[in-house]
Design goal:
Oligomer: single chain
Number of helices: 6
Strand content: 15-25%
Order of helices and strands: HHHHHEEEEEHEEE
Largest sheet: 4 strands, antiparallel
Shape: globular
Radius of gyration: 16 Å
Structural class: alpha+beta
Distance between the termini: 32 Å
Number of strands: 8
């Protein structure tokens, strides 16, 4: 079910959900089982985010791999490679794409995140797989520009970071400092057109 379509004035290149590496990721990692407990699309997105977050603990030895979730996971499991926010974002974003969800990378000063299109909310929702959180205000998941606006207006009242376990913690302005320089990468097709 598609919600209201948004038309943008920039050319975005999106990877096909039918790409063989995405099909392999979905099958090998049993992502259908990962999202099965979710009753809503948002719950399924959060389950995928939590799955990506749990794949490794960042830090330690590190080799910068291609933007390929399957290769990243193989390096984590077979070579004890430890990625950071970019690898969490790549694995999560490609897991979303493999499930037919639209997702894009968010580049922040010093951090890398993902936004996922929600048909239920008719908006892009910021998801942070590194810390396994998203942000909400008045029970509504926030977009990147909402978080950026909250930072610049110095008004974070009512904004909570929400964990996959349902925990809700009020934020401080300093916690969203990275959103002062919010931008969107214009492609997620790094399997078809590698970096």
């Amino acid at each position: 079910r598609n919600g209201r379509m948004l038309f943008v004035h920039y050319n975005f290149k999106e990877e096909s959900a039918g790409h063989p590496r995405l099909k392999l990721l979905r099958a090998r990692e049993k992502l259908d089982q990962v999202v099965a407990p979710g009753k809503t699309q948002l719950e399924k997105i959060v389950l995928l985010r939590n799955w990506a977050h749990r794949q490794w603990v960042s830090g330690g030895a590190f080799y910068y791999p291609p933007w390929d979730a399957v290769e990243i996971l193989d390096l984590v499991r077979n070579r004890r490679n430890r990625g950071f926010c970019a690898q969490y974002a790549i694995v999560f974003l490609q897991a979303c794409l493999s499930m037919g969800l639209h997702a894009r990378y968010i580049n922040l000063p010093g951090h890398f995140n993902v936004s996922v299109w929600s048909d239920d909310h008719n908006r892009w929702l910021v998801m942070d797989p590194t810390f396994d959180i998203h942000y909400e205000k008045n029970g509504l998941p926030l977009r990147g520009r909402d978080i950026s606006r909250a930072y610049w207006s110095e008004n974070v009242a009512g904004i909570f970071k929400v964990g996959s376990d349902g925990s809700r913690t009020p934020i401080t302005r300093d916690e969203i400092r990275e959103y002062r320089g919010y931008s969107i990468l214009l492609r997620n097709n790094h399997l078809s057109e590698p970096v």
